[in-house]
Every structure is written in structure tokens, then in C-alpha cells.
Amino acid sequence: MSKARILLVEDDFNLGFVIQDLLKMEGYTVHLSKDGKEGLMQFNKEEYNLCLLDVMMPKKDGFSLAEDIRKINASVPIIFITAKGMQEDRIRGLKIGADDYITKPFSNEEFLLRVEAVLRRSFGDVKTVQDEYQIGSYTFNMSTYELLHPEESRKLTKKEADLLKLLCQHQGQVLERELVANMVWGDDSYFVGRSMDVFITKLRKYLKRDEQVSITNIHGVGFKLES
Which domain holds residue 103? Predict the structure, then answer.
């Protein structure tokens, strides 16, 4: 259990550092994000065994963040951390698919036991980290940012690689524009949307040697990679 990777999203940095240190002392690897949008972008960068989400946060609250995470990964465990003990909040969290709900203030011992219990139930279902993806006659290596084809090879930029990875993980599925923008850029503003369209056009160009590969723009909804 000591090798579990945890994404902690908490806007109170003092509390965030306390929780992070507490978990690290137990052997967990912990990444701390300061708000929901940063947390979503970080979730796209690495594979996590557990998400600890504060409910009340700026930019994107914990419930909205959990809903976006569930669109991408239906099985990663989620624990909400909140100062609110209202029943309707608990019900909403459970409907989203939360595995547990911890109300502040809490004892360190109880907190660690809850984390351990959730990980014990779900640790066997965690996806292994995948570095290579097959896209028709192309091979995409995420760790080296290389897009390989029998006739050419190309080194992608970090943003190009992050975007292509997200599309590869959900081949044949429509990914919402807003979700892609937030996961890759950490923002869904008009200007980010225009930039995203430019990156999609670049990826289409990079994949044009295989006519079976396509990135379809579903008007008003999002993108779908097919091969």
C-alpha cells in the first residue's frame, strides 16, 4: 500500500501541507494542487490511486472536479474533505461516486484509517501506467513524446503529447471541449479554445499518413479519435 499515488486538492495550503506530510510519513506519494482546475490538469498528467478533494474551492469546487474526473475515470477512488456536514452535500458526493466523506476537523488516526480502507478496497482495480499507444499504423510513446510511423518519426511538444494522450486513452469516445481544455491547459476560456483548435489541426496533420486515423470535431460538443 505504501506505493500508492495520491492526488490531494486543497485550497488551504496550510492544511494541504499538513495532510501531505501526514500521508508522506505513511509512505504515500502525494501531489498537492491548490484549486480544482489545477487539480484536474494534474490528474491528466499522471496515474493516481486515490483523489482527496476539498469541497469548497475557488475556480472549480470539489464536486465539479469529481464529476470531471468521473467522465475520464469511472473507478479511481475519491474521498471528499469538507468542513460542511450537511446531509445534502453527502448525498451529492455519493451520487457523483465518492468512496468516502471526511468532515473537518478530523483526527490524524481516523483520516489515515479511512484512506487505507478505501485503498484496500480498490487498489487491485488501479490501471497500470501506459507509456505506448497504438493509433492505426502509428505508435505514440508518451514518455519520450515520440510519434512513430514506418515512414517517419516526430517529436511532439509537451502540450501536443498531453492532448494526444488524452485522446488515445479514450479512442472512439467523444471528449467534451471544456473537459479537454481544462485537463490539458487548466482553463476553458475563449482563447484557450482557439489554441486547442490549432493543436487539434496540428495533430491531424501529424497523423495524415494513415487514412484510417481521424480526429473528428463533433460540433458544439468535442473531439473523437478513431483508428
Answer: 5-125
Task: Give the predicted TM-score (pTM) of the model.
Answer: 0.75
Last residue of a domain, one of 95, 125, 155: 125
- Which residue, 8, 87, 100, is CA-closest to 54? 8
Strands 138-141 and 50-54 come out as unpaired
Could you read off the pLDDT of 60-70 as tens digits, one per residue? 888 999 999 99
Distance CA 4, CA 35 (A): 22
Whether residue 175 contacts residue 161, with contact meaning beta carbons closer than 8 Å, is answered with: no
CATH number at residue 156: 1.10.10.10
Alpha-carbon distances, residue 102 vs 40, 85, 108, 207 (angstroms): 21, 9, 11, 46
DSSP state of 175: E
Do residues 142 and 52 make contact, with C-beta atoms less than 8 angstroms apart?
A: no
Which 3-state string (H, E, C) describes 21-86? Answer: HHHHHCCCEEEEECCHHHHHHHHHHCCCCEEEEECCCCCCCHHHHHHHHHHHCCCCCEEEEECCCC
Residue 93 sits in the same domain as residue 108: yes
Q: For residues 179-185, give the mean pLDDT.
A: 90
> Looking at the predicted structure, is the pLDDT value of residue 84 above 70?
no
Residue 220 pLDDT level (bands cut at 50, 70, 90)? confident
CATH of the domain at 37: 3.40.50.2300
Q: How far apart are CA 60 and CA 39, in angstroms?
A: 9
